[in-house]
Design brief:
Structural class of chain A: alpha+beta
Radius of gyration of chain A: 28 Å
Strand content of chain B: under 5%
Shape of chain A: elongated
Number of helices of chain B: 22
Strand order of the largest sheet of chain B: 1-2
Order of helices and strands of chain A: HHHEEEEEEEEEEHHEEHHHH
Helix content of chain A: 40-55%
CATH architecture of the largest domain in chain A: Sandwich
Order of helices and strands of chain B: HHHHHHHHHHHHHHHHHHHHHEEH
Number of domains of chain A: 3
Oligomer: heterodimer
Structural class of chain B: mainly alpha
Largest sheet of chain A: 5 strands, mixed
Strand order of the largest sheet of chain A: 3-2-1-5-8
Radius of gyration of chain B: 25 Å
Number of helices of chain A: 9
Distance between the termini of chain A: 70 Å
Largest sheet of chain B: 2 strands, antiparallel
Shape of chain B: globular
Chain lengths: 322, 650
């Protein structure tokens, strides 16, 4: 029985170690969470090996012949054993609870010196506002090695912010502001995934996240400022990639969303009034094969007149032209 | 049962005046009366809405959501009145002589009797099981539809709206129309027999609670037919604000939950009263089989918790139809308030779906290992511990929801604590196997499959109970894997174990053992290949409830889809075995498993009133291997039986 249990334990340990169960850990928080993960894994392997060892041994050793009409040994219980298998799991789960509590405190305490990014979720796109440089963008950019507090809000329904490599996740809830901390430790491009069902475009609600060196981050900020200063269709393009591209395909902006119609097709040759109406009152004319009420009817309120105008200008200029 | 006795007195008064044959058919409870009362109720509901709106000057008069609400309340009531579910109470309330309960409705002589309002707990148990298996197959087909869509990245067969509808209705049917009522069905059949009672305490209530169930299921299915937007598609959790902003199909979830919940609560009350008051002489609590204990704990959970989900869905209904803004942040509502109320039911619901399975596993393992259940009292007490703790862990579903951060800590502690009684049960089942003489009949295979799969589901639950890991894993495919290990590997395996175990008792025939074993191994392998890789998908970054996913997950998803079709195919073996064995299987003896509990001491199927004489319980139900020990005396000396007959007589 011990042999069976040990064999199962070794096999499980190999499965746990050899298969890469977790994505790369690219934030300080991820490293701490992974420590808890491995701590729990070791305990679970031990328990499962014990259970598998006992049960495999028992079903082999105590199997009865079909014509065997005898009964088993009339064992009703064993107080010592019952105390042990109450006390030992109690100790183990207490250890897990305490360790989890300590790690939670570490990854959840907002340090004095930290940056802030305001994250807004809406159907079906993320937007990121950087208060210290007053930049708003459709991508999340963070300098490496600094702790950033992401303040999450939602415009319509609940969304959830998750970057698997950072391990950190938190819901964005309409009406309240929630927060989550991230300290990225590796430069690169990551994907922000919405993990709370938010409607028809949920599966496609993604945003890019960049982790830059300090110098590259400053450069990114100044580039964004330049984009924001642009007017007319250039500003419209920025807006489009931030707020529309996750659902709509538009060749000029390089977006490939499939929740709503392909704008190169349905807006080709349309005038500014039609485009404007389609944005502020999406149900006015529904493209064939699509359903009403999928596109939020709130863009007329959430976009300023200037933004709306630049967006319309951009779409009239580019839709169906490339 | 006093009420019925009074009914007998009125039997003479009830000499019905001669009436035409058709008039009698049209006015006595049954499908013919239902066929005209149901449409009448539809018309009345429509007139009520339009009349009230015209009187109050609300426009438009035919507001679709209001009409749907009225229809889904009044039309099912019309159906229930038509089929005769309320007859007795109407007679009683109107002061007319109540119909005598002559028990002619007891027992089923032909298949048609299963389609009538029947007060026999054995008939009702079978009605429950057949109905729930129908919805199980329907919801399973929906799952296979989803797996077909998910076999490749990108969109293949359905659009996003249909996909979201499929997983929402799949989960709702499996939970409210399969797992919960399937256990209620098994309990309905078995519990009165196990405690030596002739029926449930309230047979008419029992009949009514069954008939609410198909109503709930049909409402859920009907949501696919809604012209604007189709089925409810906000998940079975139906989080606000998404659910409030959904097309009218979402109303179908709110109303179906009311009907299913009412059915659940009424059955649970019935179980509680039956178990507390109708035990045979000598059947003390410490002599009850563990399934009865499990049902006692489950019913307590149902009675205390189910009103919360009913409330949560009523509030959404009011938010949608009356614009009350309980939860809508736009009108000062609090979106997380919904989640607290919802999970205050829906976490205990996990134990509602699990504890009866624990009970079935205990029965089956003891019988097929030929040993007493190890640590019987601790097994019963751990059920009660889970019952109490189960109410204090709800917010572990909300660790990343944005609720008060401090609340996560106590919820983590209680969540971890609940692993202790659960662990006790697993270890005790293993110890029950020790030095037994294990017979690997199909029920035992499913019970052992349950223990091993449930251990995996329990351990992944420990991962999720730890807040730092949950921050990463929640709302991903890891959750999908976890809940299916608990509800499929846990609940469904025990439901199969129970169906095979009591099949001979219910039908009087044996099932085909060879097909049963094929069914088990197909299910066991198909289940693991389908759901185990989902742990990896979730940890690596695949969120749940998506119709499309990153290309790098394509291969594994394809394997999962293929395995899920094999898993679905295994159900065909099960259905074939059940149907053919029911019709042509070898005749079952009264006690094919040599079990000690009371239901096996009577013929298969049992006599109409279960026991020809009241059994006298004299010992524990699991005294296998104890020389001369007995659980009950059925043909014993009448003088030994104490004067408690009135409690159980009818």
């Amino acid at each position: 029985m011990v042999l069976v249990g040990a064999a199962v334990g070794v096999a499980l340990a190999l499965v746990a170690v050899l298969i890469p169960w977790l994505p790369p850990a690219d934030s300080a928080e991820a490293l701490k969470i992974d420590d808890v993960y491995w701590f729990v894994t070791i305990i679970c392997i031990a328990i499962f090996a014990l259970v598998a060892g006992v049960s495999l041994y028992a079903v082999w050793k105590f199997r009865a012949a079909p014509d065997d009409t005898d009964d088993g040994a009339p064992i009703h219980g064993h107080t010592g054993l019952e105390v042990v298998w109450t006390a030992v799991p109690a100790a183990l789960v207490t250890a897990i609870t305490i360790y989890s509590g300590i790690v939670l405190n570490q990854i959840d305490t907002v340090p004095k010196d930290h940056r802030v990014v305001e994250v807004t979720g809406q159907q079906f796109a993320w937007s990121f506002h950087y208060p210290d440089s007053n930049v708003t963008s459709g991508v999340l950019a963070l300098p490496i090695g600094q702790t950033t507090e992401l303040k999450l809000q939602a415009k319509d329904v609940i969304h959830s912010f998750w970057v698997p490599e950072w391990r950190m996740k938190e819901d964005a809830v309409p009406g309240i502001t929630t927060n989550v901390l991230v300290t990225p430790t590796k430069e690169g491009t990551f994907t922000v995934i919405c993990t709370e069902l938010c409607g028809l475009g949920h599966a496609l609600m993604r945003a890019q996240a960049f982790v830059f060196s300090e110098a590259d981050y400053e450069k990114w900020v100044s580039d964004e400022k330049a984009k924001a200063a642009a007017t007319g269709s250039a500003a419209g393009k920025t807006l489009f990639t931030q707020q529309c591209g996750s659902c709509h395909t538009l060749a000029d902006a390089g977006t490939q969303g499939e929740v709503g119609p392909d704008l190169d097709k349905v807006l080709a040759g349309k005038d500014a009034d039609f485009v404007h109406e389609s944005i502020v009152n999406p149900n006015a004319e529904i493209a064939p094969g699509y359903q009403p009420d999928v596109m939020p009817g709130t863009f007329g309120d959430s976009l300023t007149d200037a933004q709306l105008q630049s967006l319309v200008e951009y779409l009239v200029k580019t839709a169906g032209k490339s | 049962m006093a009420l019925e006795t009074r009914g007998h007195e009125h039997a003479e008064v009830q000499a019905a005046p001669p009436r035409g044959k058709w008039r009698r058919r049209l006015t006595t409870g049954g499908w013919i009366r239902a066929a005209w009362v149901t449409p009448l109720a539809f018309v009345l509901a429509t007139l009520l809405v339009i009349g009230c709106r015209a009187w109050l000057d609300y426009h438009p008069l035919n507001e679709f959501q209001v009409l749907l609400t009225a229809w889904m309340i009044i039309v099912p009531l019309g159906f229930l009145i038509g089929i005769g579910g309320f007859d007795y109470w109407f007679y009683w309330a109107s002061g007319r002589p109540t119909r005598p309960e002559d028990h002619s409705g007891h027992g089923a002589r032909s298949w048609k009797d299963y389609f009538r309002v029947n007060t026999d707990h054995k008939v009702i148990g079978v009605q429950y099981l057949v109905t729930t298996i129908f919805f199980f197959v329907t919801a399973g087909l929906m799952a296979m539809f989803m797996r077909a869509e998910l076999a490749k990245p990108g969109m293949q067969f359905v659009d996003n709206n249909t996909f979201n509808g499929l997983f929402s209705v799949h989960a709702s049917l499996m939970i409210f129309l399969f797992v919960i009522p399937a256990f209620a069905g098994l309990g309905n059949y078995v519990i009165p027999l196990m405690i030596g009672a002739p029926d449930m305490a309230f047979p008419r209530l029992n009949a009514l609670s069954f008939w609410l169930l198909p109503i709930a299921g049909l409402i859920m299915l009907a949501s696919f037919l809604v012209p604007e937007g189709g089925a409810f598609a906000a998940g079975w959790t139906n989080y606000v604000p998404l659910s409030v902003q959904q097309p009218p199909g979402n109303l179908f979830f709110q109303m179906a939950v009311q009907w299913a919940g009412a059915s659940s609560i009424m059955t649970a009350l019935n179980f509680l009263v039956t178990i507390i008051t109708m035990r045979a002489p000598g059947m003390s609590f410490w002599r009850m089989p563990l399934l009865v204990w499990a049902n006692f704990a489950t019913s307590t959970l149902v009675v205390l918790a189910t009103p919360f989900i009913a409330g949560s869905q009523f509030f959404i209904l009011l938010d949608r139809v009356l614009h009350t803004n309980f939860f809508e942040p736009g009108g000062d509502g609090y979106a997380l308030g919904y989640q607290h109320i919802f999970w205050f039911y829906s976490h205990p619901a996990v134990y509602i779906m699990m504890l009866p399975g624990f009970g079935i596993a205990s029965e089956v393992i003891a019988v097929f290992a030929r040993k007493p259940v190890f640590g019987y009292r601790l097994m019963a007490l751990s059920l009660m511990a889970i019952l109490v703790l189960g109410f204090s862990v709800w917010a572990h579903h909300m660790f990343v929801s944005g609720m008060s951060p401090w609340l996560r800590i106590p919820m983590m502690a209680t969540t971890m604590l609940i692993a202790i009684p659960t662990g006790i049960k697993v270890f005790s089942w293993l110890a029950t196997l020790w030095e037994g003489r294990i017979h690997f009949k199909t029920p035992m295979l499913f019970a052992l499959g349950f223990v091993s799969m449930f251990v995996i589901g329990g351990l992944s639950g420990v991962y999720l109970g730890s807040i730092p890991i949950d921050i990463h894993a929640s709302d991903t495919y890891f959750i999908v894997a976890h809940i299916h290990y608990v509800l499929f590997g846990g609940s469904l395996f025990t439901i199969f174990a129970g169906i095979y175990y009591w099949f001979p008792k219910m039908t009087g025939r044996m099932y085909n053992e060879r097909l049963g074993k094929i069914h088990f191994w197909l299910t066991f392998v198909g289940f693991n290949v389908t759901f185990f890789p989902m742990h990896w998908l979730g940890l690596q970054g695949m969120p749940r409830r998506v119709s499309d996913y990153a290309d790098r997950f394509g291969n594994l998803n394809f394997i999962i889809s293929v395995a899920s079709f094999a898993l679905g195919a295994s159900t065909i073996v099960f259905l074939y075995n059940m149907i053919v064995s029911w019709r042509r299987g070898p005749i079952a003896p009264g006690n094919p498993w040599r079990a000690l509990t009371l239901e096996w001491q009577v013929s298969s199927p049992p006599p109409i009133f279960n026991f020809d004489e009241i059994p006298q319980v004299v010992g524990s139900p699991y005294e296998y291997g104890v020389r001369g020990a007995r659980h009950a005396v059925l043909n014993g000396d009448r003088a030994e039986v104490p004067e408690r007959e009135e409690v159980v007589s009818h």
